[in-house]
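Workshop exercise sheet. Pairs work together: one partner reads the sequence aloud, the other fills in the structure field after running the prediction. Swap roles for the next sheet.
Pair: D.N. / O.F.
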Amino acid sequence: MNIYLKIILLFFLSYLSANAQKNKTELFNKEIIKISKKFKTELFFNKSVYFFSKKEWDSTLIYSQKHLVTTDNIHLKNFSHYFRGYSFKEKKLYKQAEKEFNLINKNYRFYYTVRMFLGELALEQSQFRNAINYFEELINIEEKDYYYFKKNAVIHNLGLCYLHLKQYNKSEKYLTKSVKLQQQQQDTLELIGAYGDIANLYYVQYKDGLAIPYFEKAYQMAKYTKDFTSKLNTSINMSVVEENRKKFQKALVYRKEVQQWKDSLNDQNRIYEVAQKEKEFAVAAKQQEVDLLQVENKLKETERNIFLISAISLLAFLGIGAYLFREKVKANRIIAQQKETLDELNATKDKLFSIVSHDLRSSVNALKSSNAVLLDNLQSKNLDALEHLLQKNSGIVNGAYGLLDNLLNWALLQTDGGYFYIEKHRLFVIVEHVTYNYKALLLEKAIHFENTVSKKAVVAIDQESIKIVLRNLIDNAIKFSKPEGSIKVYAEESNNFWNLIVEDTGLGMSETTRLELLKDSALLNKKEHEDVLGTGLGLSLVKSMIRKNNGKFNIESILGKGTKMIVSLPKTTTNG
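Structure field:
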């Protein structure tokens, strides 16, 4: 049996229970901040509390050090040492973190919680003997001294330390006890971690008959949780187990689940980031005086970002232009017969640069004008108008970013600079992944969305390029849809193809415009609706990506009633 694969299992499962502990640490830090805010007269101390609550570790370290130099209050010093120790821990400077935690006085209310942190730091650095000393100290304390950590966590960590030291009998004693306690407490995530670690204990001793049932229990429990990290890690473990058992078909199934949970975890993280921003704004709206200062800082940051984006855009624009120009000169020197093609490409490039430059300049001008209005509203303290204008600025910047993203993908496509690999994929899963990121936009316009793509629709494609196609088509459908409209994505089977259809009830287009958009020669076209931002580059990119995937593209539309964008993709694998 492959010992390397067992080591991979040890790495993942040793940290499965860390998520639950992290949540408890977050609650503990909130309690610390709540207590610390009672000391309002200490300037440096209050600044360190503020930056600690914002997770700005460098600023926390600066002001907590200033506070330590200027105070003789032992109680407050304990808090400052805690802020510094935790900040160093988050920056992964473990030696400095240990030093600060060890400076905390024994009279500190949360002294034993700090000792728990020291044990975890030792475990993190593979100093297992030192970690055992800390955890054995904590086993014997009174029940009232367990602040935001459980005795079971101490027992479990001792089991992990002895597992790493290969003292399997001692490890089994503690991990078995931990499993029993977790079963009584019925904490699903922690029980998953406990099952995983005791399974690992048996697995590294080649006691597969004892280990595998625990791996399977952890996997089955993770299936019914909403924690994607647990789902991901237990799926990885099961795939490795099946590989070691030479059951490669089962291992492949688990590997596919691993990729699914990775994508879901990435989507969840992006949604969490958006939610955090919305929460910050909601809290800011309730604190008038503090709000005005925060909005002023955000405005300054927005201006810096605008200038930065403009500078990056200009550099990218000039870089792409220079690259295309060099390619044109080189082609003229090598093959004279390509003059007609090069002239056509040059005309396309000039047209592209002209329209992209116009749209970028329009976006920047819009942002400049909006910022002027923002400053006026800031002086009048009109928070409702400020919120509306900030959302408007965000939409303009997102539009400019989408334009640059399409421009980059178009440039890579023209120069064969992108990675491209055709394999079988289910259309339903790809549509789910792409549309997940548009939920906020759909909600904002009150658009009803349906994904009814058949789960039987399996096509031979390059996944990433089809995601680009879908993003552009769905983005256009949202852009050209009226509020409270509807968008449907579905698939129809046709001979050797699956027709993926994005249908909206939006503005539609004339027959002249439809035929013009289907032309291969028309990279950019005059917009049917002048009030909708866009260059037409996205649709050109869509057509190119579909051709590269051996597919077909068609449009059905009625002006004023809506549009169907039809992407035909091959059912079976072809040489791409």
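Discussion prompt: The CA atoms of residues 18 and 193 lie 8 Å apart. What would you look at next?
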